[in-house]
Design goal:
Layout lengths: L8 E6 L22 H13 L4 E4 L10 H4 L10 H9 L6 E7 L5 H14 L4 E6 L6 H4 L8 H19 L7 E4 L4 E3 L5 E6 L4 E3 L13 E4 L4 H10 L2 E2 L6 H14 L11 E2 L2 E7 L2 H12 L4 H12 L23 H12 L4 H11 L3 E6 H13 L5 E5 L5 H16 L12 H5 L13 H9 L5 E3 L2
């Protein structure tokens, strides 16, 4: 049935306790998942047993500053800082990619480049950086700011940030580290590329003081769905983690982003689009639906209302829970995900309760609830019909849902020839099937150098 279709790529998306907001209350859940290192290491090992391309972790740099009573009923408030966790997981896995989120709005390019280059080296070439610009306006207060940066400006800063980071990652050409004991020559200065960047947001001088890993540089991951986010992804991303609700919407997104890549001289196959997918699977559809409804029934109404308030960036306190979503005011910092939730509520005439139940499981991502055949049919259709290149799998409850996916879905994907039976390599790039992207060094790609120079993003010079 699969024919010549390329095998799909899969990420395992970690979320404390599981992706359903009531997961921590489920009898099979590990309630202290966000602060339990042995449990997290076991999840990474399970993901590697399932031959996943990557262990993916999102992040926010603020505590959820909503209503305290609701916050006490939600497990998503504290967790181990993702980069620290990735370093630990690198020592307990051999093939699994390690991708985590770090914001370009509240960080500095040199520090981020150094951290991720070090993780890439420690893991043998399995690191990836998920670039976000911080849609959560509450993060501003964590850094002493009265207001969150507007979305357009966040993306301008993010674009410049990404190019500076890549410039630093490309400080060393192949063969730069001679390490000749007899001659005493450690470095070949002709193979050092020194970044000299003066832009609208940053002034940075290289080179980076971390040597490259076996994959050359970490994989760039991006999640924006707005027009600004799509443009940034077309220019910089190698993996896109997005949220799509329908096959038609996913196809349009896929065609749009891949179609933009030509203007940056990029091959569409060098970008893997992997939308989030919550999977609740069982032997029969009825059994899967009953499992999911058990989770839905565990949602605390107050916590559900506050989750939706946070997701749409509008306080719903005082509105009738069984009434419609109110008209939302214009918002210059709101994310495309928030707009998606509002559109779903209006389009389907959902009450606030109905809408938070929709958001509770996958936060706007696609959900598939059914038998093994139903789940795999959906996944195959989306990849075959060019809606995506794979998925970032969102297990509802950890570890039970990940174990079920490995035992039930993975074998069927393999039986249909849709998924690997062994890792292709030891680096994230090798397993994703992507090569290291070009970088405009002194002897390569004059057109790209010229484009970056004209956009006042980056400048380079050789060492000698």
């Amino acid at each position: 049935m699969a024919g010549s279709m390329a095998q799909m790529k899969l990420g395992m998306f970690y979320w404390p306790c599981g992706h359903h907001m009531a997961a921590w209350r489920h009898p099979d859940a590990v309630a202290d998942s966000g602060s339990n290192p042995p449990h997290l290491i076991e999840l990474a090992k399970l993901a590697e047993q399932g031959l996943f391309d990557m262990f993916f972790m999102a992040d926010s740099v603020s505590f959820w500053r909503g209503h305290l009573d609701a916050m006490t009923r939600d497990s998503y408030g504290t967790w181990i800082e993702p980069f620290t966790l990735m370093c630990a997981l690198s020592q307990h896995t051999k093939h699994l990619g390690l991708v985590c989120t770090s914001t370009s709005t509240y960080d500095q390019p040199y520090l981020l480049a150094r951290r991720f280059a070090s993780l890439d080296l420690m893991s043998g070439g399995r690191a990836g950086w998920n670039l976000v610009t911080s849609a959560n306006k509450l993060e501003a207060a964590s850094f002493g700011r009265d207001e969150h940066m507007e979305k357009v400006e966040r993306y301008r800063r993010g674009r410049e940030f990404a190019h500076v980071v890549r410039g630093l990652w490309n400080s060393w050409a192949d063969g730069a580290f001679v390490q000749d004991k007899e001659s005493g020559l450690y470095l070949d200065k002709s193979k050092i590329s020194i970044l000299e960047h003066k832009g609208a947001h940053f002034r940075v001088r290289g080179p980076l003081n971390v040597p490259p890993s076996p994959q050359g540089e970490p994989v760039m991951v991006q999640a924006g769905a707005s027009d600004d986010g799509r443009e940034l992804a077309a220019e910089t991303a190698e993996v896109i983690f997005g949220a799509q609700q329908t096959l038609e919407g996913a196809q349009a997104f896929y065609a749009d982003v891949k179609g933009r890549m030509a203007r940056y001289g990029r091959d569409p196959d060098s970008l893997k689009i992997m939308p989030g997918l919550l999977v609740c699977v069982a032997r029969t559809h009825a059994e899967a639906a009953a499992k999911y409804e058990q989770l839905q029934d565990l949602i605390d109404p107050q916590a559900g209302m506050q989750l939706l308030s946070r997701r749409i960036d509008f306080d719903l306190t005082g509105y009738p829970i069984d009434g419609p979503l109110p008209e939302l005011p214009p918002n210059k910092t709101v994310s495309s995900r928030a707009q998606l939730f509002a559109e779903i509520g209006r389009r389907e005439n959902l009450s606030i309760r109905d809408l938070y139940r929709r958001v509770a499981g996958a936060r706007g991502h696609m959900e598939v609830i059914g038998s093994v055949a139903e789940v795999v049919d959906m996944m195959e259709t989306w990849v075959r019909e060019k809606a995506c290149d794979g998925f970032n799998i969102m297990p509802p409850v950890f570890p039970a849902s990940l174990i079920e996916f490995n035992q039930m879905v993975v074998p069927e994907l393999q039986r249909r020839g849709l998924y690997r039976t062994a890792y292709e390599g030891t680096t994230l790039r090798a397993n994703l099937g992507i090569t290291r992207p070009r970088w405009p060094t002194a002897d390569a790609d004059a057109a790209l150098r010229e484009r970056l120079s004209q956009s006042d993003v980056i400048e380079f010079r050789g060492a000698g």
